[in-house]
Write a structure and sequence with these properties.
The protein contains 6 helices and 7 strands; from the N terminus they run βααβββαβαββαα. The chain has 176 residues and is an alpha+beta fold. It has a single domain, classed as Gcn5-related N-acetyltransferase (GNAT) (Aminopeptidase), CATH 3.40.630.30. Strands 1-2-3-4-5-7-6 form a 7-stranded mixed sheet, with helices on both faces. Strand 4, helix 3 and strand 5 (114-120) form a beta-alpha-beta unit. It comes from Thermoclostridium stercorarium (strain ATCC 35414 / DSM 8532 / NCIMB 11754) (Clostridium stercorarium).
Length: 176
């Protein structure tokens, strides 16, 4: 399988395909962490459409199919990252890393100072993945029935134009 994919903003017509990907990925996530209910599994296609219309959703596409997605909600100088999912056959090929890198550049271009996400702290692969992208564990709670890490990444002020030009040149204009 060739390691070639395109990243772009999601559009409403992507919602059904994103929904299928999220359901598959979060069923696997729930099984791994030993829970039967997750908020992500209760989402409908309409919920995904709402997120695309009202927040920022990116997708990774290979051979005309959505193979990855990530969601971002900005509030002031902070952002909440959620619903990172990559299809099982496309994992460990740089899709998740590319989506996080794209979100990093997007958030920096918007003046965001801090990104927050949550993941299962008992899933070493996910924690290691986020550590490798500059996140650290701020706290852990058990309120949802599993050890859930609140992870933070802090952005320092950099020349975002220079940073943005290094990769994904086609996305620069859509950030402004």
């Amino acid at each position: 399988m060739e390691n070639c994919f395109v990243l772009r903003h999601a559009v409403v017509s992507d919602a059904a395909e994103i929904h299928v990907l999220l359901q598959e990925a979060f069923r696997e996530y729930a099984e791994f962490i030993g829970v039967t209910q997750l908020e992500a599994l209760n989402e409908s296609i309409k919920d995904v459409e709402y997120e695309i219309k009202n927040n920022t959703v990116f997708v990774a596409i290979a051979d005309g199919c959505i193979i990855g997605t990530i969601r971002v909600r900005i509030s002031g100088d902070e952002a909440y990252i959620s619903r990172l999912a990559v299809s099982k056959p496309h994992r460990n090929m740089g899709v998740g890393e590319s989506l996080i890198n794209l979100v990093d550049r997007f958030l920096q271009s918007k003046g965001v100072k801090k990104a927050i996400l949550y993941t299962a702290s008992n899933n070493p692969n996910l924690v290691r993945f986020y550590y490798g992208r500059g996140f650290y564990i701020d706290s852990v709670s058990h309120e949802r029935g599993y050890p859930r890490a609140r992870m933070i990444k802090e952005y320092r002020n950099i020349d975002t134009d220079e940073e943005l030009c290094s990769c994904h040149n086609s996305q620069i204009n859509s950030f402004r």
